[in-house]
Task: structure prediction
Amino acid sequence: MPFRIAASIVVRMESKSAISRRKLIKRTAAGAALGGVALQAQSPGVLRGSSAGRKFRAYMTRPGAGSVVEELTLLPIQPRQVLVRIEACAPCYTTIPRALPQAPAGPAANRGRVEVPNHAAVGVVEEIGALVKRVQKGDRVVVAGTSQCGQCYQCLHGDADFCQFTFGGDVFPPFATASDGSPVVAQAGVGGSSELAVVTEEYCCPVFTTVPAVELSLLGDQLTSGFAAGMCRMKIEPGSNVVVFGAGPVGLGAVQAGRVMGAAQVIVVEPIRYRRELAEKLGATVALDPNVEGAGLVEKIRDLCKGPTDRKFAGGEAWTPTGSASGARGADFTIDACGKDNAPPKVERGPDPTGILPMQQAWECTRMGGHLMYMGAVQGNFSLSGSSLALLGRTIHPGQQGGFHMMRDIPRIVKLMERGLVDAKSMIQGTYPLEKAGEAYQEVADRTKLCTVILMS
Ligand SMILES: [Zn+2]
Ligand SMILES: [Zn+2]
Result:
């Protein structure tokens, strides 16, 4: 196993510190074959493990007591862990309400743990465990909400966004202690709203770019989840009709995927005015307000997708507004990125706070044989006609992170950012120092800002 060989070389190098690296590489065949890589791959930080005991600040939640910024003490890192000095962290709406400064008591209160919220960030590697191969000290890394180990059953079957490191039931150990001695864990083993984070390497993707950290902070979770929905799992086709329900951070990632993949039109459904306007800036060709469209929304979308002719022998779609023919009209690709309200919005409210109605509408506005993906965490269940499920040929794709394979996809989305084709900057509507992290979470909860970013320095 290559990493065992690499580790043994490092140990040997430490015990023979008088020997120069160059001589050591020359001295052994293994060194000639592997040493260059191994010696570069392991930094002095590995050998000393000197970061334990470091003091740092974190925005963290205490069960039933809300969230505060406190000073923590770092615990030793484990062999496969990476110590990351966080530069920027964009709070995810799914952390609401438990990450709020006035978090409610009860089940939402962190399952009794002292926890650093969020599950994605960007930063610089400061120390790596002895078995870490993927990143080096000094690398800038995007820490993603979903891991990609490349070795588990899910990864080997092409489903890295269901990697067993994320969904395998692993219990992530505490990575720090609070001033009162309480062990502190990171949400989902990642956290992010702290000056330091300790994550396993399977969540880290090194990025080699000059794109600012503040923009990269959207690549571990929100923007990439939506973008991947259109690029990775559903693969939007050029010239197609795309509908996106919800112009939040995930939905706007999907809108951008529609634009980049060459969709003929990208129809957005969003109750909040500033989000509709932003959707149009980022690639939506039409932005509809579900509160205005009401019960006519699905038919409006079908009309927008019906094309220039209803002559079937000329490649047209049937325009009959009722009966089975109505199912012929509609979007080729639909992405529902709404979900439920985790907190009462302080802007325009959607027609259904549970998120169920958009799921039903997404199903109905997709054409026969079309594709749809559900990405929102909703409240409750929704039902489909068994016959339509069987006969209309619509393919439902699992949402999660949209087929996102973090090691494969983050670098190529970075390239698109460098070319100006993916716009994270316009999605960020406020930056906050760590002391004001609570405000960053509150704006996200209120939906008064699309994305906020906590900057650590
Ligand atoms: Zn998230
Ligand atoms: Zn895996």
Remarks:
- Residues 62 and 231 are 39 Å apart (CA to CA).
- Confidence is low (pLDDT under 50) at residues 1-47.
- Residues 2-15 form the longest helix (14 residues).
- The domain at 55-220+405-455 is CATH 3.90.180.10 (Quinone Oxidoreductase; Chain A, domain 1).
